[in-house]
Design goal:
- It is built from 19 helices and 15 strands.
- It is of the alpha+beta class and about 550 residues long.
- The longest helix is centred in the middle third of the chain and has 25 residues.
Length: about 550
């Protein structure tokens, strides 16, 4: 193939294979036959390796350069990576390594075949799913897995929560973000995730699910499984967007937990519905206000400029859903779903994988996080996590100029600065409300602790401590290994999970980029009308060629 010589099969059966050059006058040929009749292996009996044909018979569009051959040759480049070369990269590989000129479509099919060789086919993924979950549970004690099928044994839903994460949740603040992202594989679906946030402000994935769509039935099933592992208490806060299916499912499944809306999604809805991006400063100040008095002032600003926005936030959304100071439960400093969105971004290169391959990527990511964060935690020399320590240190400097007056053995009046505060170091509260909500000493609490000769670290929530951080990541998440090494009972291996039915795919190239969310705008790249390059305008173009002076740019309609 590298020499661009094509060949044709002269004879082929179960025991003999004879090929020769495509030019009948050429001497190049190869003859192979079975070692013994019962064997499946062939041995080359005769080989003439010199071509005597004309160079005119060489063809870079090699007939033997099929997508299967291309896929087999390029497959090693997808081992151990999520993305690997795209179709154009496969074209380059075929040209430089194989000497073959292939079309973009053949490169795309070769890439797809390579993915199948490395990650398995989507159909095979459904077949091995029960065995895969069995091995996860066996190697990771306490892991919870669920597979839901319909009456025809076709896949409907799945749920996965690693035992390590379930046990570690006791060391997390009880705030859980939930969201879903579209999968782009052959059988599509929605990847659901529930995640907490550790004491250092990092994602702590609790549970994963795959469902057919983001409807009420799917969310109700997923949240029911989630409730079994995290419980339902007044301390629990669930943060999501304002999708009706999620809201109704939460109210159905969780009776005691409090539901909060993601402030970022509310902001996007405001910009899209009322076209008032200039009010966002006041809105975010209202979101982050700790005291209701400050919140009321920001709402007056919004009401004076956009009365319909203020009415929307109060009546349609509800202050208690998005406002920090009005939230009935405890959501600490978590006002958005950034922790969930970062998980979705982490898996952007794996959303077209077969389901088992996708779950393998999730397991690998979580295993790495747990190990890396365990190492960081063990090496800490401070009582708090690095993120909280960096928050607390500036407050020491700010507290130096404050005047502190003791009112009783546990209560202190701290003056100075823009706002005074009355601190109760026993109940860990302050009239500024920052201490109450974040559970991290505010500048008033730091000053009171210094005056009372009490360690400020004793006022910090245990969720921010090194001890809890190390305990949360103290265990290991183990991979299932190669399928040939699995030890699966016959009754598990015999379970049938068929691929779910999907609607006929639209013709044309499959979409890989997601559609923008409501209110989300993507920045367009500037294209020069002079040189055609992106990133600058014609007036700032330094190119000396391709001048279009006196003529309209070719990309602008005349």
């Amino acid at each position: 193939m590298k020499g661009n010589f094509e060949f044709r099969t002269r004879k082929s059966n179960r025991s003999l294979w004879v090929i020769e050059c495509i030019d009948p006058n050429c001497s190049w040929r190869l003859r192979a036959s079975k070692i013994v009749p019962e064997s499946t292996k062939f041995v080359i009996r005769k080989y003439v390796g010199v071509h005597s044909c004309s160079l005119l018979n060489r063809n870079a569009n090699h007939r033997q350069a099929t997508y299967v051959v291309i896929g087999e040759q390029v497959a090693p480049q997808y081992v151990g990576v999520e993305k690997g070369p795209g179709p154009k990269g496969v074209q380059t590989f075929a040209r430089t390594e194989l000497g073959a000129q292939i079309s973009y479509y053949k490169a795309w099919r070769g890439r797809k075949h390579a993915h199948t060789l490395i990650r398995g086919s989507p159909e095979q993924s459904f077949h091995v799913l029960p065995s895969y979950f069995h091995m996860l549970e066996k190697l990771n004690p306490g892991t919870v897995t669920r597979i839901e099928v319909n009456g025809e044994s076709r896949f409907k839903y799945l749920f996965l929560a690693f035992g390590v994460a379930i046990r570690g949740f006791r060391y997390m603040r009880k705030v859980v973000g939930i969201d879903g992202t579209f999968l782009k594989g052959q059988y599509r679906g929605i990847l659901l995730v529930a995640t907490a946030q550790d004491g250092n402000g990092q994602c702590y994935p609790l549970a994963w699910g795959i469902v057919d769509s983001e409807n009420e039935d799917a969310w109700t099933w997923f949240l029911t499984q989630l409730k079994e592992i995290i419980g339902d208490t007044d301390e629990l806060a669930l943060i999501s967007d304002r999708a009706p299916s999620i809201k109704k499912a939460i109210s159905t499944v969780f009776e005691k937990a409090h539901h909060g809306a993601c402030a970022w999604h509310v902001a996007q809805n405001i910009k899209n519905k009322f076209k008032c991006a200039d009010i966002m400063g006041s809105y975010w100040s209202a979101v982050n206000a700790y005291r209701c008095e400050d919140f009321a002032g920001y709402m007056i600003e919004i009401s004076n400029r956009y009365p319909r926005v203020a009415e929307y936030l109060e009546n349609e959304v509800g202050f208690e859903k998005w406002s920090r100071c009005h939230y009935p439960g405890l959501r600490y400093n978590i006002t958005t779903m950034n922790m969930v969105e970062s998980l979705n971004s982490m898996l952007v290169n794996a959303i077209d994988f077969p389901y088992v391959a996708l779950l393998d990527v999730i397991q690998e990511k979580m295993s790495k996080w747990w190990n890396d964060r365990r190492i960081v935690g063990m090496a800490l020399t401070t009582p708090l996590t690095p993120g909280r320590e960096s928050q607390l240190r500036p407050r020491f400097a700010q507290s130096n100029g404050r005047h502190t007056l003791q009112l009783n053995p546990v209560t202190y009046h701290v003056k100075g600065g823009e706002l005074e505060g009355v601190v109760d170091i026993f109940n860990k509260t302050c009239t500024c409300k920052e201490f109450d909500i974040d559970k991290l000493p505010c500048v008033h609490a730091v000053a009171a602790a210094h005056h009372a000769q009490v360690s400020v670290y004793s006022l910090v929530s245990q969720y921010y401590t090194k001890e809890y951080y190390v305990l949360a990541y103290g265990e290991t998440i183990y991979p299932v290994g190669s399928q040939s090494q699995w030890d699966v009972p016959n009754e598990v291996a015999a379970k049938i999970v068929l691929p779910r039915e999907v609607k006929d795919k639209k013709r044309g190239r499959p979409k890989t980029s997601r559609f923008p969310s409501v209110g989300e705008f993507r920045k367009r790249k500037n294209r020069c009308g002079k040189c055609g390059a992106y990133g600058h305008y014609k007036k700032r173009c330094n190119s000396q060629t391709g001048s279009t002076e006196g003529n309209p740019p070719t990309n602008v309609p005349v």
